[in-house]
């Protein structure tokens, strides 16, 4: 039996703020939303399937020092598309871990951009090839492991 990732659920502090980020900046499609008591949620997709669920139930920002999600990695169709996302994220004012496109490790053709969402959750948008010649922040360790 093989398991595939179905969707990812993220706790967020402010659903409206997170929806604006994931829908308007990253381009996810709002599939549905709801509310139970004072807790709200939203389902986001890629136009074909559910990808991400946002749950408004976080009282604190993301804490990378605790057990749980390390980062959410998203894959783009081309390095040009990664650069378009970078431009949109910079216009939004996102916090980046590294300057521009970086390689996953020294000499790798894969790479991308590493940044944080409004709650501080670590995100990556990368491609499997096309980042040839991009700098690697860490020579031997995976770039995505240390931000």
Task: Write up what this structure looks like.
This protein has 147 residues and is of the alpha+beta class. It has helices at residues 15-25, 79-92, and strands at 8-12, 29-36, 39-45, 50-56, 72-75, 95-96, 102-103, 111-116, 122-127. The strands form two sheets. Strands 5, 6, 7, 8 and 9 form a five-stranded mixed sheet that branches. It has a four-stranded mixed sheet with strand order 1-4-3-2, with helices on one face. The chain is globular. The mean pLDDT is 94.
Helix/strand order, N-terminal first:
EHEEEEHEEEE
Cα-atom Rg, whole angstroms?
16 Å
User: Residue ranges: pLDDT <50 for 5 or more in a row?
Assistant: none
Mean pLDDT: 94
Query: Structural class, judged by helices and strands?
Result: alpha+beta
Distance between the termini: 33 Å
The fraction of residues assigned to DSSP E strands is 25-35%
- The number of helical segments is 2
Oligomer type: single chain
Name the overall outline.
globular
Secondary structure: number of strands: 9
Biggest β-sheet strands, sense, barrel: 5 strands, mixed
Estimate percent helicity. 10-25%
Quick synopsis:
The protein has helices spanning 15-25, 79-92; strands at residues 8-12, 29-36, 39-45, 50-56, 72-75, 95-96, 102-103, 111-116, 122-127. It is of the alpha+beta class and 147 residues long. Strands 5, 6, 7, 8 and 9 form a 5-stranded mixed sheet that branches.
